[in-house]
Specification:
By secondary structure, this protein is mainly α. The chain has four helices and no strands.
Length: 127
């Protein structure tokens, strides 16, 4: 049962660390904000998004980001990440992705990993 909407067959098995242009244009690009004025970026938003995914996946520091032939400075990649983070683009992308997976009956809730931030404190924690 192969589903052509998903790169790994039936369902996503893991978080993507790199997104192809066609996938980016279909699933990611509609939810990311654009610059309203100023100079147009010299590289595609897909490449910028992939650089952001690389930093988030590897956990490396922003100033250690190596770009292809220095096509963009790491500070500009960070500025895009910061903009999308603050203006709600990432939240919009996440919510719409989950909604799409749910509508297509491809949302797998059999395993949910919590980060523990809502764990009840024991022995003298705040009430």
């Amino acid at each position: 049962m192969k589903n052509s909407n998903y790169p790994h067959g039936n369902k996503w098995q893991e978080l993507p660390v790199k997104v192809r242009l066609a996938t980016f244009n279909k699933f990611v690009e509609p939810y990311l904000s654009r610059v309203k004025h100023g100079p147009k970026s010299k590289i595609s938003r897909c490449k910028i998004f992939n650089y952001i995914l690389y930093v988030l996946h590897t956990g490396s520091q922003w100033n250690q980001l190596k770009t292809y032939r220095n096509e963009i400075h790491w500070t500009n990649v960070y500025k895009w990440h910061n903009r999308w983070s603050k203006d709600g683009s990432y939240q919009n992308l996440f919510e719409n992705s989950v909604s799409l997976l749910n509508r297509e009956n491809n949302l797998d809730l059999t395993i949910i990993h919590g980060d523990g931030s809502n764990t009840v404190a024991k022995k003298g924690g705040k009430g």
